[in-house]
Amino acid sequence: MIEAGPRPLVEISKLCKWYGDFSALHDINLTVAEGEKVVVCGPSGSGKSTMIRCINQLETHQSGTITVDGVEVKPGMKHIERIRRDVGMVFQGFNLFPHMTILDNLVLGPMRNRGMSRADATELAMWYLERVHIAEQASKYPSQLSGGQQQRVAIARALCMKPKIMLFDEPTSALDPEMIAGVLEVMIELAEEGMTMICVTHEMGFARKVADRVVFMDAGEIIELAEPETFFNDPKSDRAQAFLGQLLAH
Question: pTM for the full model?
Fold first, then answer.
């Protein structure tokens, strides 16, 4: 008897996206299984962020299909909030409400979208703040925290919605170098615990350590898709070789 592998959580098929005459994404095909960690890399403007933003329809696509946990995601669909509850997202910017405490930022989603009581949402929020090593900051406001601390809060806020998959859109690119390690540490812990993740990043050390597969994009297309060891040690395309050469030169 053949054992079934992990079920696909995200399935992208022949995805195309354009702005006027500009083709932002062309014929993207990618399947991410439950528990899989996929790192997406490539030069600026290659379509990395656009691709993952299409998954929860922060960007709408013109053709092709996106399926999240068996439900096709379509432009203008009525129940997109149900999809977004299951798809956590962490951005370059922290997007915290500045007039609310850290704790209040975290309890808002579970109370409003999951129907949780304040007490239950608070217990959940404090648990996740412990997870990201920042529980002592619960009563502070975002402006009182460093960038790295705010990004960890943003991760905890996404986790409070109990997502099935986490999307990270260059989560360390706005941080000072000394703050990056703390955020990556939290992401590595999530990966080790089995969270399904798609992460757009230039942090190649993180990709080597965490990724099951690396996606390399350029000019709106997936140029290479490989396991980290193969991608970093033996990239097949000239574009991937040039990209890695530039990164390693810095």
Answer: 0.91
